[in-house]
Amino acid sequence: MQNSEQKVRFKIFRYAGDVRPRWQNYEIPLARGMTVLDGLTYIKEHDDSSLAWRSSCRMGICGSCGLLINGRPQLACQTQIIELKPPVILKPLPNFPVIRDLVPDLMEMFHQHRHAKPWIIRDDHHEMEHPTSEYLQSAAAMENYFQFSYCIKCGLCMAACPTVATDTRYLGPQPLAQAFRYLADSRDEGFAGRKNSAFGSSGPWRCHFAGECSKVCPKHVDPALAIQALKRDLFLRTLRLKKIAPVAMVAPKLQAATPRPDIPPAPERTVP
Ligand code: FES
Description:
Blueprint: E1 7-14, E2 22-29, H1 36-46, E3 66-69, E4 72-75, E5 88-91, E6 98-100, E7 103-104, H2 107-115, H3 125-129, H4 139-143, H5 156-160, H6 162-166, H7 173-183, H8 191-195, H9 212-216, H10 223-238
Parallel strand pairs: 1-5
Antiparallel strand pairs: 1-2, 3-4, 3-5, 6-7
Helix pairs in contact: 2-7, 7-10
The structure holds FE2/S2 (inorganic) cluster (FES).
């Protein structure tokens, strides 16, 4: 049975640019199934309309509500208050500049992500721009990259990474996992195009393999695996030991269906 008297304390990092950061406490009534995002919404509606955070979908898809919740990067909309040890301590994601209160500036991550050229690159430009059919890919070939395509760009992996915290040149787990997602795609032939951006001196060799990125990913993507696979791939290519599979071909055009023979209309009948 729900206890209407049960309350929980939220201790929240406040920052408004010009003012020095401070902590602010709020007490909210706890309801069954309440998430941290629900708690923030309650505070905004009942206690303090000046509190700022970011959210949109409320269902772990848009990736905008990442916070440091009791010391761990998590999505506010997927974290149940009841599962946390009170008080609930909220800070903006580390390793990003803070815009205001709980809102981090993710622009640098998106910029790094662009470095990975996260799209299919092929030499058959005409086919890419005026497709005549789809590219052939087996289910086994799709397995090579599929889990990495679940990335929602929430930045939790970047916030958890100790190398991102200390090495400003490191691209980080999010862009590198996405670089591997396309490198491992049998339809892509963009290795040369990404060589100097994603695989260069800011790339996977700077990873210390702490593995924190994979522990915090809310979509169970394994960026640490992608980065180690990238290292292996680059190593084999450098030694010319990598067998490069031919790029996926365009599927043959489907035969136009044979037109049905004309069927004569049923004879008109009159009711006797
Ligand atoms: S609000 Fe979209 S992931 Fe949480």
